[in-house]
Write a structure and sequence with these properties.
Layout lengths: L1 H17 L20 H23 L10 E6 L9 E6 L3 H21 L14 E5 L2 E6 L3 E3 L3
Antiparallel strand pairs: 1-2, 3-4, 4-5
Helix pairs in contact: 2-3
């Protein structure tokens, strides 16, 4: 009797292992990770484009040695996800015609990046600088409350 019970359980176990359920809709099954779209790749490429653009702007902004603050101006740059500029930048007035369109383009690119990837931020307003100071040949922005702050 004991052997019959063991034999019966073994037979049911073997038949249960051999039974296969037919898959009706293969789209419901988990996908192979290798087939996953490379969303992070496109986000990284977009981020790299922003990095290249800001490096060009920084290069232009630092193209002149600061010895007279009257030769420099500042403007808002970038876009926070909640709105408003992400920072301010000082630049030589000599390159104003060249740098301002690049700053506007960068700001639009950053705004599009924020919307495309649904980014969030602290929504804190970046205070507008009250002026510019020259320190060690570099233009630095002066804030009302905190004194001098380094550009970008």
């Amino acid at each position: 009797m004991k052997n019959i019970l063991i034999f019966t359980l073994a037979a049911f176990s073997l038949f249960a292992c051999n039974a296969k359920k037919k898959v009706e809709n293969r789209d419901d099954l988990p996908k192979d990770i290798a087939l996953k779209p490379e969303n992070n790749l496109s986000q990284q490429q977009d981020k790299d484009e922003l990095t290249v653009a800001i490096k060009k702007i920084d290069s232009l902004a630092q193209s002149e040695t600061c010895s007279n603050v009257a030769d420099f101006a500042f403007t808002a740059i970038g876009a926070k996800p909640c709105g408003g500029p992400s920072s301010y930048i000082a630049y030589p007035k000599k390159v104003e015609a060249e740098i301002l369109p690049q700053i506007q383009k960068f700001t639009m690119m950053q705004s599009a990046f924020n919307k495309k990837y649904n980014l969030m931020s602290d929504c804190a307003l970046v205070p507008e600088p009250t002026g510019i100071a020259c320190e060690n040949g570099k233009a630095v922005l002066v804030n009302k409350n905190s004194g001098v702050s380094q550009v970008q």
